[in-house]
Amino acid sequence: MADSGKNPFKNKMSDKVVSIPREVPSGLNIGTLLFGTILIYILITLILYLTSEHITSYEVVEGTISGNYRYSALAMKTEEIETAGESGNIVYYAREGSKVNKGHTICSVGGTVSAGDANSSVHGSVTTNLSDSDLSAAKSDITTFSVDFDEAMFQDVYDFKSDLKGAILQSSINEDAGTYVIGSYYAPASGFVLYSLDGMEELAEEDLNEELFARSAYRKDNLRLKSSVSAGDPIYKLITSDSWVLYFPVTEKLRISLEGLEKVKIRFLKDSSTFSAPFTIIQGSDGYYGKISLTSSLVRYVGDRYLEIELILNRKKGLKIPISAIDEKVFVRVPDEYVTVNQDSGSEVYLLRKTFHEDGSMDTSYVTATVYSHNREKGYYLLNPDLFHFGDYIAMPNTEKQYLIDEESIETIQGVYNINKGYAVFRQVEIVDENEEFCIVNPDNVYGLSAHDRIALDASKVEADDIVA
Known about the structure:
Largest sheet: 9 strands, antiparallel
Number of domains: 2
């Protein structure tokens, strides 16, 4: 055979050779596609997060709530106003707020030194130098006023100015000087001496009204700032009894809470002193008022017409939740004997529902319902109203008795939205105590809450079965 000069193996191999391009064509590949998908997902998630309404959660804790029952109480005392019998310059001798006995020299009007007293020039003199203790007391009063000052009560500035000036004047007086002065006035009975009038000295319990507690309208006249008086002018006030009374307005809710309470513990915010005293609620011309009767400690507050107090009540323990988390929902009330309890889950019941249509036909169906509350004392369950229509009947097992679902079977309860599982579930709560911000609920409700449950902080932003991120 003649040699053709060609390699037969080379030809066969050349038929199966596939050319591979040296450069990868531009365009999408799997990495770019995957990255783009993730980016789009992130953008969509971010937009949904920014545009959706966020639900803030609150973790339920055990505890009590602090007493926020603070009031500006009105003090009524046994007060007698003494007036001048003649005109003339006036000099005060007894110190403001001091307790004096009957016959003690209070002041003198247009008086002169008694004749025949060898030491009259000494006893009748008035010194003008303040002692170190007087200066220290004045500085302390100024500091206290500065710390407690409220711009909304600017009238207090003028009252404090009068009190301070009167105290300085009083510090320069020799208390024994009046004994030797003709025209001196003596205490008609034992009591506390005051040199200010506010027009409330003859106020009686039946005169209580809301306007009396508007402190912005309160005015006090400091008698010590007058250097002279006319006949008939008031010159001092004497509080003749250690018994005194505090009054403060109460809301209807607080009235019900305090009804039947015969004694109450109070704290005076002025000095944090705490006392227990008899307590009653009285009805005024425009509402109810708390009345606290005291028989001691008047010396601490003898010059105060208004006192800031706090009621210290025996607070109940339980689960502490914010007031903002409370909502109300309507449920259907079904008697115990018309349901069958799921033995594996006490929070579910079975019942036989009969629905009648307009054409007279009837559908019978077995329904599984979640229990939202169970009143053992009255014997009924509260179930989701979405399972029923007015006019439906619930059949009692093994009997001919039927229970009609109508307006009479509707009941409204308070509760919160439990979001432990990522969606909102309404849970009943029984409030046993509350203040302006928090409430204490009964921890023993098997259909309610437990410690460390997460609930929606603002119930107005949630509906039952909402998905909560």
